[in-house]
């Protein structure tokens, strides 16, 4: 049986929710979130950045914003399941050390195991670049274009034990245009994501779902 979602406490400007942002790549969503948090009194604050990829371009935002940033790569192991559990245990320890209350996935390209999800369920939130349940997985734009879709978008959702199957919190549509490529579509969807995700976090951290 799957675990219930247990959300974080209600945050306030005086006691903002302590967030860790997990990234794997360019970190444009992380940058949008950090700028949002700095632009006004905010009910959430980024206390830790974690990348599974040492070459993630987004890691430099940690330095720019003076936020502790860690690279936690997959540890060596011949057994793939053991390797995933060991990796997530390292992440879990880092989250606990920094007293993190909410895990924000922002372009984090690994699937979390149910072992990790069960510890954090209701306190892991993700943004996915499609209108879920359409086009889950790592190639949402490619799949939307291959399908001949006219509309796609992005979805903010809680993370559960499945792949992009958790409870949907918010979605916004983006039109697919004649001549769109994966890159053009990705750029337009990211612009929407950069507005939507911080706004959803404001509401989620102050009022819950
Ligand atoms: C974003 O579009 C995000 O929705 C997507 O990766 C991009 C990260 O961009 N996430 C996924 O596809 C997760 N399955 P960024 O690194 O520039 O923020």
What would the keywords be for this entry?
binds glycinamide ribonucleotide; alpha/beta; globular; Rossmann fold; 7-stranded mixed beta sheet
Q: Report the total helices.
A: 6
In helices, the fraction of residues equals: 25-40%
Strand content: 15-25%
Return the average pLDDT rounded to an integer.
97
Main sheet: strands, sense, barrel: 7 strands, mixed
Order of helices and strands: EHEHEHEHEHEEH
CATH topology: Rossmann fold
N-end to C-end Cα span: 22 Å
CATH class: Alpha Beta
Identify low-pLDDT runs. none
Could you state the CATH homologous superfamily?
Answer: Formyl transferase, N-terminal domain
Structural class: alpha/beta
Number of domains: 1
List the helices and strands and how they pair.
Layout: E1 17-23, H1 28-39, E2 44-51, H2 60-65, E3 69-71, H3 80-97, E4 102-105, H4 114-120, E5 124-128, H5 140-146, E6 151-158, E7 168-175, H6 182-207
Helix pairs in contact: 1-6
The structure holds glycinamide ribonucleotide.
Walk me through this protein's architecture.
It contains 6 helices and 7 strands, in the order E-H-E-H-E-H-E-H-E-H-E-E-H. With 209 residues, it is an alpha/beta fold. It has a single domain, classed as Formyl transferase, N-terminal domain (Rossmann fold), CATH 3.40.50. Strand 2 (44-51), helix 2 (60-65) and strand 3 (69-71) form a beta-alpha-beta unit. Helix 1 runs parallel beside helix 6. The model has no long low-confidence stretch (mean pLDDT 97). It binds glycinamide ribonucleotide (GAR). Glycinamide ribonucleotide is lined by residues 23, 25-29, 58, 106-107, 127-129, 138, 140, 189-190, 193.
